[in-house]
Design a protein that fits this description.
Blueprint lengths: L9 E3 L5 E4 L4 E8 L5 E7 L7 H16 L8 E6 L2 E7 L3 E3 H7 L9 H24 L1 E2 L8 E4 L9 E3 L6 E2 L30 H11 L11 H18 L23 H30 L6 H8 L4 H11 L16 H26 L1
Antiparallel strand pairs: 1-3, 2-3, 3-4, 4-6, 5-6, 7-9, 8-11, 9-10
Helix pairs in contact: 3-5, 3-9, 4-6, 7-8
């Protein structure tokens, strides 16, 4: 879907028109093209949020970049005009979001069952997509949550069901001179986040936002967006595998917002602080976990013990989540995540399926 100067004759669907919200500043509704009958998801600013028009523009630019560079599993986007205001005309994904899938399976704990196989299929798609987003398009999502991972129900390919949506907080990053070598330089911190979904945000993303709210200039304002995305992906996959979040906020352990934080941001600051305390507990035990992994001795931690209970390959699963959820961005799994032993076999199977489908398509063309 390319940018066009043509004006679409869009009309809101009379049935089940409300699809969701894009944070607190926009709504997403089902529309159809009166000329073609094609259905779309239209993202419009809320009437009281017109000052956030720049976020729609940034989202379009990020989606347009991913489409130009053929990043897989990212929804397509165009610019439209609805009710006298600009809007985003988005590809309508027919399916459910990963959050709905997780909620439907709360309480499962069957090591090596269908749930783990499903998690691995989602994992390799998500990690491959992030690889192309970060390396080829230099786009960081910065709001990966189960609600922003759609699963298309009508795909004939079990490895082509994931669709990443809602790029409202996305940023362009600079992978540096190593880009041609498919390596992200984790020393580069050049992205300043605009927001976060607390349960899934990286420690550095929350710290940056807190610092911004305190109205002070500080080096921690900038983060490595690609590494932050990997942490969020780890939280999403952990929740899918285990049915629970790896980190829960500790509201009674957090500090009150400093006086320098504006009144309307104090609740958010304290919410981020409560989650940061949970991250600090992980940091305090992280060295012992890392030392044990490097020494080849059993890794013991409640966060990782839960993973072991849910996996037929407990040691590899624990190592994968210990690394992708590493508290420090420079030590976290990045572009090589899909080659980790926990997901590598599934990733190779996905590539084999792709090659077989391509070969089948080519043979049909030549017949």
């Amino acid at each position: 879907m390319r940018v066009t100067t043509e004006t679409r004759r869009l009309k809101r669907d009379a049935h089940n028109w409300h699809l969701g919200t894009g944070g607190c500043f926009s709504s997403i509704q089902r529309y159809y093209d009166e000329d073609t009958g094609h259905m779309f998801a239209v993202k419009k600013l809320s009437p009281n949020a017109t000052e956030y028009d720049f976020l729609l523009k940034a989202e379009f630019e990020a989606l347009h970049r991913t489409e130009q560079l053929r990043v897989p599993r990212v929804i397509k986007c165009d610019v439209g005009w609805c009710s006298g205001a600009s809007c985003l005309v988005l590809q309508l994904v027919v399916g459910v979001d990963l959050g709905e899938v997780i909620e439907s399976k709360v309480g499962f704990n069957f090591a090596g069952g269908a749930e783990e196989a499903d998690t691995l299929k989602i994992a390799v798609q998500l990690l491959e997509t992030l690889f192309h987003m970060h390396i080829n398009a230099a786009v960081c999502h910065l709001d990966l949550t189960p609600g922003n991972v759609m699963l298309e129900t009508h795909s004939n390919n079990p490895y082509d069901t994931v669709r990443i949506i809602d790029f409202g907080l996305a940023k362009f990053s600079n992978p540096g001179d190593q880009r041609a070598q498919d390596i992200i330089d984790t020393s580069i911190c050049d992205v300043q986040p605009d927001g976060a979904t607390t349960d899934y945000a990286s420690p550095e993303q929350l710290r940056s936002l807190q610092t911004q709210y305190e109205l002070r200039q500080h080096p921690d304002l900038l983060i490595n967006g690609a590494s932050s995305d990997m942490f969020s992906a780890g939280v999403v996959l952990y929740e899918q595998l285990t049915g629970v979040l790896p980190f829960l906020p500790l509201p009674h352990a957090g500090r009150s917002a400093p006086e320098s934080v504006p009144e309307h941001l104090k609740d958010s600051w304290e919410e981020y602080e409560a989650m940061s305390q949970a991250h600090h507990i992980w940091v305090s035990t992280g060295k012992a976990v890392t030392d044990a992994a490097q020494a080849g001795t059993p890794v013991n931690h409640p966060l990782l013990d839960k993973v072991k209970e849910c996996s037929a390959n407990p040691d590899a699963a624990a190592d994968f989540f210990q690394r992708i959820l590493h508290p420090h961005y420079s030590s976290r799994l990045s572009v090589e995540a899909h080659m980790h032993s926990y997901v590598a076999a599934t990733f190779c199977h996905m590539r084999e399926c792709k090659a077989a489908q391509l070969q089948k398509g080519n043979s049909q063309i030549t017949q």
